[in-house]
Amino acid sequence: AIFENTQAVLQAEQILIRRGIPFETVPHSQFDRAGCGLAILFSEKYISALRRAIGEVHIKGKFVQIEETLPS
């Protein structure tokens, strides 16, 4: 997940922590050049839960599928 600014990344991290969804915050320039320079990596099995959660708090995020070792 890629976000427009660092504040949105921090908010998304808090949502993931509260919901017990494993993730890793990484620099994202290798995936996309837009946004604040950070991305949150998480397993695809959590995408629906994350989309719903960030929508509830009105955070805009872009989801980019990558093939990489992700948190389980």
What does this structure look like?
This protein has 72 residues and is α+β, with helices and mostly antiparallel strands. Helices cover 33% and strands 17% of the residues. It has 2 helices and 4 strands, in the order βαββαβ. The chain has helices at 6-19, 47-56; strands spanning 2-3, 24-27, 38-41, 61-62. The strands form 2 sheets. It has a two-stranded antiparallel sheet. The longest helix has 14 residues, at 6-19. The two termini are 16 Å apart.
Annotation keywords:
72 residues, two-stranded antiparallel sheet
- What is the end-to-end distance? 16 Å
Largest sheet: 2 strands, antiparallel
Radius of gyration: 11 Å
Instruction: Please bin the fraction of helical residues.
Output: 25-40%
**Helical stretch count?**
2
Based on DSSP secondary structure assignment, what is the total number of beta strands?
4
Helix and strand element order: EHEEHE
- The 3D shape can be described as globular
DSSP strand content: 15-25%
Could you name the ranges where pLDDT drops below 50 across 5 or more consecutive residues? none
Main β-sheet, spatial strand arrangement: 1-4
The mean pLDDT is 80
* Structural class by sheet pairing and helices: alpha+beta
